[in-house]
């Protein structure tokens, strides 16, 4: 409420007026940061984790779309043909997209988990968030379902933002390999060559040129399936493992960097291990589609679990994901704690 003060009227009668409180120049930004602490922490942590692990993502994509004799062979060939720059091809797109996507994803997830928790409390008499915050409890089917549903909701929503960026990133990562690939069809070869050594925005313009504006959403169905399932598993694993470690270690996991580090690494490993064939088919389909013109039908590879070639690059992907999420969640929880500690 505005503060009240007394002043003397010209007649000498005391009257009461209201004066607005004065804020220093640093208080408005501080209030904004505290209000949007989830988004601010997620954005900063995303930039750090993306740059740290992008070379592993590049190796993973190359191994999914082209045959290599293992990860080391892929690293050696990439370095020999393209140098260090080859491992960072397309990094601009994910720096923008991953930051945006994670920020929106975490915002949707935070709201969704409270909505689902309230719904379960109202209709089932069990509140997952109250259970998690109670001392001495462990994860159960109710908490896993709540966090998984909230994660799936976030994953399905961000797919429509992430798909064009990820397609652009994939194109940049394999553009040299596409150009060197010998195609029997000269038209496909010409289209493949047109992607060679282009930046993020030129690549996006090239996709629109050959496949129209709808081409930016090539592979959307596969992307939606991957992100809905993967993000649900991702958040359910993170929250559940953090909850378990909180009780097991007898400490607040938010204040225990080892618990956050372990939960962050584990959620990346588990989610990728379970949905990797879907991601492989998405990458192969998008790579193939880049060599087709608008209106041409692109065959969709069949998703086959437990087939060996569907898991090419899985080790690299799991290592990358563990590193990315360990760095991300450590930075995320650290920044949120620092923001919460700011004076109101």
From TrEMBL:
Presence of keyword Mitochondrion: yes
SUPFAM superfamilies registered for this protein in UniProt: Mitochondrial carrier
Molecular function per GO: transmembrane transporter activity
Alphabetical keyword list: Membrane, Mitochondrion, Mitochondrion inner membrane, Repeat, Transmembrane, Transmembrane helix, Transport
Residue stretches spanning the membrane: none
Lipid bilayer topology: Multi-pass membrane protein
GO cellular component labels: mitochondrial membrane
Domain of life: Eukaryota
Pfam families (UniProt xref): Mito_carr
Chain segments annotated as coiled-coil in the UniProt record: none
Record localization: Mitochondrion membrane
Coarse class of the protein's main subcellular location: mitochondrion
Solcar repeats: 33-115, 142-244, 255-338
InterPro entries reported for this sequence: MCP_dom_sf (IPR023395), MCP_transmembrane (IPR018108), Mitochondrial_Carrier (IPR050567)
PANTHER family the record matches: CARRIER PROTEIN, PUTATIVE (AFU_ORTHOLOGUE AFUA_4G06390)-RELATED (PTHR45624:SF9), MITOCHONDRIAL BASIC AMINO ACIDS TRANSPORTER-RELATED (PTHR45624)
Family named by the database record: Belongs to the mitochondrial carrier (TC 2.A.29) family.
Stated name of the protein: Uu.00g074380.m01.CDS01
């Amino acid at each position: 409420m505005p503060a009240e003060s007394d002043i003397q009227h010209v007649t000498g009668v005391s009257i009461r007026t209201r004066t607005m409180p004065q804020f220093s120049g640093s208080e408005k930004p501080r209030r904004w940061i505290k209000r949007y602490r989830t988004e601010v922490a997620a954005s900063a942590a995303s930039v750090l984790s993306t740059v740290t692990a992008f070379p592993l993502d590049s190796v993973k994509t190359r191994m999914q779309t082209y045959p290599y004799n293992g990860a080391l062979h892929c690293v050696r060939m990439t370095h020999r043909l393209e140098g260090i720059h080859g491992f960072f091809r397309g990094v601009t797109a994910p720096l923008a997209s991953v930051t945006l996507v994670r920020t929106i994803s975490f915002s949707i997830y935070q709201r969704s988990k409270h909505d689902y928790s309230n719904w379960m409390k109202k209709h089932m008499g069990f509140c997952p968030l109250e259970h998690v915050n109670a001392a001495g409890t462990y994860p159960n089917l109710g908490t896993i379902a709540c966090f998984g549903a909230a994660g799936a909701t976030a994953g399905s929503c961000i797919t429509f933002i992430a798909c064009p960026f990820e397609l652009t990133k994939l194109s940049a990562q394999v553009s040299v390999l596409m150009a060197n690939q010998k195609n029997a069809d000269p038209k496909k070869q010409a289209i493949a060559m047109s992607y060679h050594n282009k930046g993020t925005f030129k690549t996006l313009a090239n996709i629109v040129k050959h496949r129209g504006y709808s081409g930016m959403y090539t592979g959307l169905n596969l992307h939606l399936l991957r992100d809905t399932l993967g993000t649900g598993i991702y958040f359910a694993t993170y929250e559940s493992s953090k909850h378990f470690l909180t009780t097991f270690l007898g400490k607040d996991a938010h204040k225990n960097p080892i618990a956050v580090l372990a939960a962050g690494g584990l959620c990346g490993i588990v989610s990728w291990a379970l949905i990797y064939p879907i991601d492989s088919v998405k990458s192969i389909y998008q790579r193939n589609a880049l060599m087709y013109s608008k209106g041409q039908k692109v065959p969709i590879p069949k998703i086959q679990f437990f087939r060996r070639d569907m898991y090419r690059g899985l080790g690299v992907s799991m290592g990358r994901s563990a590193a990315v999420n360990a760095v991300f969640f450590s930075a995320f929880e650290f920044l949120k704690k620092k923001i919460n500690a700011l004076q109101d």
